[in-house]
Every structure is written in structure tokens, then in C-alpha cells.
Amino acid sequence: MSQISDRLSTAPSRGAIAAWLAIAALLIALGFVGTSSAEPNSDVLYDYAFAGGSVVIYGMLVGVTLTIASRLGHPLQVAGFKRFKWRWVGIGIGLIVLVLLLAQALEPLLHAGDKQGLEPKEWRPDRTNAFAINALVASTVVPFAEELFFRGVGVRALFPFGGAAAVVITALAFGLGHGLLVALPVLVPFGLALGWVRLRADSVWPGVVAHGFYNGSALLALYLQLTN
Asked: Which distant-in-sequence residues (6+ apart) come within 8 Å of 117 by Cβ?
């Protein structure tokens, strides 16, 4: 991590740190409220409105994230919109494959997928287009917004506390933000892996690609399961 210490300024901005922590706390609270109060809707991936609502909500998160980033300098530079070496994409995807294997191994014990309640129970050919659009949003818009907030600006804002602390705090916030304690054994390693990649690559893009690969792979596996 010392290799990137000269590229990520350690000059703290209390306002940016406080704002990021406040939004992270809000996301965590909303995550737990959503999973505890809402009835699981296993047909949500067949709903066009779910895709549209996700675009709006995650678009707002991107706007808030860049606003926080502006407190630390040029928002795009702070958020990690930088050139990167392609090997970091490969490393990120490799780490995510390990997380996918971990998720598969733990699912019979944790049942995190079932408790999230988003997986359809049966395939509906008449809703193929809606499923495809939701899969596209989940594989592009969602990972972009989440990586921008947690790894892009989050790691940068918390870097004055040390690279390791920044990675651990953002990984915990990312895991808790999904509102499922049973998913933490998978989501926290996910966040740790991509936080480390963010630091080493000095760019948010490898994490965005790896995160999109994770979501896309999971949805592809779900599609194959439903249609076979």
C-alpha cells in the first residue's frame, strides 16, 4: 500500500469524511429496514419498474458521491476515474471468482440468497425482456454506483486513517448496507478484495468491472437454473 501513498493524499477533510460516514450509515439503515419490513418479492426481476427505480436511486447515489468527492479535490480524480493497468482487472476478477466459490460453498449453510428474496422461483418466458433489462442494470449501473461510493470515494476519504483501515471500514459498510447479516461472510471479503484492488490499481475501474462480472455471473447462473 505504500506504493500508492504518494498518489492518494493523506490530508484529511473532516467534512468529506463525515458526509461519507453519514451516507454509509443511511444506506445501512435503509438496507436493514428494507429487508426486515418488506415482504420478499420473488418476481421483482420480472418488473420493469424495479429496473427503472434502481437507475434513479443509484443515479442519486452517484450524484451524492461526486458531491462528497468535490470536498477532497477534483471529483473525478478523487473518485478514481484514472487510467489503470489491465492486469488489475484480471486480478480483480480472479479475486471475485474466489468470492463466488465462497458464496456457493456457504449458501447451503447461510441461505443468504433465499433470505434476500429476489430470486424468482420459476422462469416466465413472457417476462424475458424485463429480466434482461434488470440483469443489465444489476451488472452495470449497480456496480458502478456502489464501487464509486464505497471503493472510489470511500477508500479515498478514509485513507488518512491508513490504507488498511480504509479498506476494512468500507468493506464492513458495504456488507452491512445490504441489510443481511447472514451475507456478511461473503460481502465483507468481497469488499476487502475490491478495496485492495482500488488501492493497488489507484483506479476505481478494475473494481467496477470485477463487481459487474460478479453480478452478471450470478444472474447468468440464475437464468440457467431457471431455464433448465
From this structure: 40, 41, 42
- Residue 117's pLDDT is 64
How many Å apart are CA 222 and CA 228, to the nearest integer? 10
Q: Up-side HSE of residue 185: CA atoms within 13 Å toward CB?
A: 13
12 pLDDT more than 80: no
Question: How far is the C-alpha of 82 from the C-alpha of 201, rounded, in Å?
Answer: 9
**pLDDT at residue 133 greater than cutoff 70:** yes
Altogether, the residues listed in the chain come to a count of 228
Nine cell digits for residue 172: 464492513
**Nearest one of 122, 121, 124, 97 to 190, comparing CA atoms:** 97
Q: What is the pTM of this model?
A: 0.90
pLDDT given for residue 6 in this prediction:
42
- pLDDT, tens digit, 9 for 90 and up, residues 199-218: 999 999 999 999 999 999 99
| DSSP, residue by residue, the chain | -GGGTTTS-----HHHHHHHHHHHHHHHHHHHHHHHHSPP-TTGGG-HHHHHHHHHHHHHHHHHHHHHHTTTSSHHHHTT-----THHHHHHHHHHHHHHHHHHHHHHHH-HHHHHT-S-SS--GGGHHHHHHHHHHHHTHHHHHHIIIIIIIIHHHHGGG-HHHHHHHHHHHHHHTTT-GGGHHHHHHHHHHHHHHHHHHTSSHHHHHHHHHHHHHHHHHHHHHHH-
Query: What do you get for the CA distance between the two ends of the chain, in Å?
Result: 45
Give the pLDDT score at 3. 43
